[in-house]
Specification:
heterodimer, A: alpha/beta, Rossmann fold, 2 domains, 7-stranded mixed sheet, B: alpha+beta, 3 domains, 6-stranded antiparallel sheet, 13 helices
């Protein structure tokens, strides 16, 4: 098993004939993802270099292929429209890679597409190693195994995964939830899935400054995953208040979104916080060998 | 992007939110002539993005043209005094000349994006005219909130509920639901991250009127409102953002600090982790810089020059994780960039890992650069070279 994505998941790419879309569709296809086609309005009837059918609308693509997952490579002004089209066509999981979507577009889409899970926007996608890859992650650094990985960022995820793989710690599913202030799927929503996934035996949560996703994840882990070995990391400890760092969502507002608050929350849940990415594999190995975490009161 | 009070009030006026009569002036003489043609009781308010204008003596009342001119001269003579967030203070380029209101009560009304709820949230308090964070500390019970379902949008009952929950003075009740609705329309129409009326005044003659306006717009939505986007040029844009724009990286991707270890990484998360690694190694960071995807020669050169020419960096730590970007290509980009640049040379420490890392490191070593194996090693080496 894995979460959100396995080798049977039928995936389409919205924007499959664009530069990004075609490049990454090819990489997903070669990784072994069950890519069944793509959508570009006006290019219906064409076939991609991989022999995949191109459709004019998501509706046609879903009817013809039975796709359930859609990976969206559409420029920011059209991304909300692409997400609505996916929702109306019956897609159940949309992975939105696009960076720079207006916050209000995401607010409206997230508030009105109940029943469709959205990963992102502004995310690297997700991968269930050995099974399928949807997004822009470099597949070759991942290895199938039992560690679930959650992260808000792309290259930091690769850094951490690379370290895990080199330490012999393979991964069940890695989800890049995205760096925007409003995202479709939070850490907690991923943790609920990991909780019920038999393949996932341990977790790494890579957070960063801004918002309260890490605090909520820590509370969930403390209350609902008492036996799961978990290690956390919080990026941006040297960030100044009031300024976004790279990600629109990575911002400390007043006393809110500080690294201290996040680290404290993880530690209160009994989750060790690595001071640097290179410590994560050793910390995780120690947590795994120690077995059950000290039970924590779920009082906060 | 933050708007000045007069810009925010222009949006308020268009949206149908009552604002005081006013004129915008860029010189003391303009203030004088405005008052000459519009006799009455006026307040002259410095137009800046920093808060704390009242305490800094940058809001003053004036009767008559001569006093208006004198007061404006005094306000504009010195910049806003610096504070912790704005160590340079802020130059005053213009003032708003505004009708003096006979204020009976002051309330607070704002809409912002709540990240955890993933909804727009109204925040209303019967305590206006003070910093909302202070209100939250001293009178937390006074804050009334309403999370708006974006599928339904605003409906007047929301305004009524908020007015009762916040125990606003009964004088507000008739006007408040319409003002809250207009504010919500404006919030959505301009893709704002924050719209704030503080204070929302109740005057002795029973008017409910926005005495101040704070509007923060989403940079990613500016393209939808070209007229507003143009204001950008008249605003004292954050200097780091201007520099980032000039170098062709996103405005959020560059930030300066007082230290001497320059940094650059591909990806925001890795760039933050790189700063943390330098700090862990006992160094002081000169900057945050996310070079973005595809670190080709042109981009690397722009970024190198950005850091060398604008920060106190005495060493430059480049931390690249080659995912889709191949390590050998990045290495060639770095070597080429260094050959092209006319800027002064500082030592580079380069950590290059991921796809084609060995080939990349070989190219760097051949060019006489110092490739290192891990992020921690790179940080240590950079700190060593900086001191």
């Amino acid at each position: 098993m894995s979460i959100f994505l396995d080798k049977n998941s039928k995936v389409i790419v919205q924007g499959i004939t664009g530069a990004e879309g075609s490049y990454h569709a090819d990489r997903m296809h070669r990784y072994g993802t069950n890519l069944v086609g793509g959508v570009t309005p006006g290019k219906g009837g064409q076939t991609t270099a991989q022999g995949l059918p191109v459709f004019d609308t998501v509706k046609e693509a879903v009817e013809a292929t039975g796709a359930t997952h859609s990976c969206i490579f559409v420029p920011p002004p059209f991304a909300a429209d692409a997400l609505y089209e996916a929702y109306e066509a019956g897609i159940t999981l949309a992975i939105c890679i696009t960076e720079g979507i207006p916050v209000h577009d995401t607010l409206k889409v997230v508030g009105t597409t109940r029943g469709m899970r959205i990963i992102g926007p502004n995310c690297p996608g997700l991968i269930s190693p050995g099974k399928a890859l949807v997004g822009i992650m470099p597949g070759h650094i991942f290895k199938e195994g039992g560690v679930g990985v959650l992260s808000r960022s792309g290259t930091l995820t690769y850094e951490v995964v690379d370290l895990l793989t080199r330490a012999g710690l393979g991964q069940s599913t890695c989800v890049g939830v995205g760096g925007d202030p409003i995202i479709g799927t939070t850490f907690v929503e991923c943790l609920r899935e990991f909780k019920n996934d038999p393949q996932t035996e341990a977790l790494v949560v890579c957070g960063e400054i801004g918002g309260s996703d890490e605090e909520e994840a820590a509370a969930f882990i403390g209350a609902h995953l008492p036996e799961m070995p978990v290690v956390a990391f919080v990026g941006g400890r040297n960030a100044p208040p009031g300024k976004s760092l790279g990600h629109a969502g990575a911002i400390i507002s007043g006393s809110f979104g500080t690294p201290q608050s996040k680290i404290k929350a993880f530690e209160a849940a009994g989750v060790p916080v690595a001071g640097r990415p290179s410590e994560i594999p050793a910390f995780l190995a120690r947590e795994i060998s120690r077995g059950k975490r000290a039970p924590q009161p779920a009082s906060f | 992007m933050n708007l000045m009070e007069h810009q925010g009030k222009a949006l308020f006026r268009d949206a149908g939110i009552p604002v005081p009569r006013s004129g915008h002036a860029t010189t003391p003489d303009d203030v004088g002539s405005f008052i000459e043609t519009n006799p009455g009781d006026w307040v002259v308010k410095a137009q800046v993005l920093m808060g704390g204008r009242g305490k800094a003596g940058k809001i003053k009342s004036a009767q008559g043209a001569a006093e208006g001119r004198a007061v404006a001269r005094e306000i504009m003579a010195t910049p806003m005094p610096p504070n912790r967030q704005n160590p340079q203070g802020e130059k005053i380029n213009s003032v708003l000349v505004e009708e003096r209101l006979a204020i009976a009560k002051e309330a607070y009304c704002a809409i912002t994006v709540d990240r955890a709820a993933r909804k727009p949230v109204f925040i209303v308090s019967r305590f206006g005219g003070m910093d909302i964070e202070e209100v939250a500390e001293q009178h937390p019970e006074s804050l009334a909130k309403y999370y708006v379902d974006t599928a339904i949008g605003y409906s007047p009952f929301i305004g009524r509920e908020l007015a009762f929950a916040a125990q606003l003075d009964p004088g507000y009740r008739r006007a408040f639901p319409a003002i809250a609705g207009a504010l919500y329309d404006l919030f959505f129409r301009y893709g704002a991250k924050l719209v704030e009326i503080n204070p929302l005044a109740l005057t002795h003659d029973g008017r409910v009127i926005a005495s101040d306006a704070k509007v923060e717009l989403d940079d990613d939505a500016l393209y939808r409102n070209p007229g507003v986007a143009e204001w950008r040029t008249t605003l004292p844009l954050d200097e780091d953002e201007l520099l980032a724009e000039g170098a062709g990286v996103g405005i959020r991707n560059f930030r300066r600090f007082p230290g001497n270890v320059g940094t650059m990484a591909n990806g925001a998360g890795l760039a933050m982790a790189t700063m943390d690694a330098v700090s862990n190694a006992g160094g002081r960071i000169a900057n945050f810089l996310d070079v973005g995807g595809g670190a080709n020669a042109q981009r690397v050169r722009n970024c190198y020059e950005l850091v060398v020419n604008n920060t106190g960096a005495t060493v430059f730590f480049i931390n690249i994780f080659g995912g889709i970007t191949r390590g050998d290509e990045v290495a060639r980009g770095i070597v080429e960039a260094m050959a092209q640049t006319a800027s002064r040379k500082i030592p580079l420490v380069i950590r290059l890992t991921g796809t084609n890392e060995e080939e990349g490191r070989r190219i760097l070593a051949q060019a006489g650069m110092t490739p290192v194996e891990t992020m921690d090693d790179g940080a240590r080496k950079a700190v060593e070279l900086a001191s």
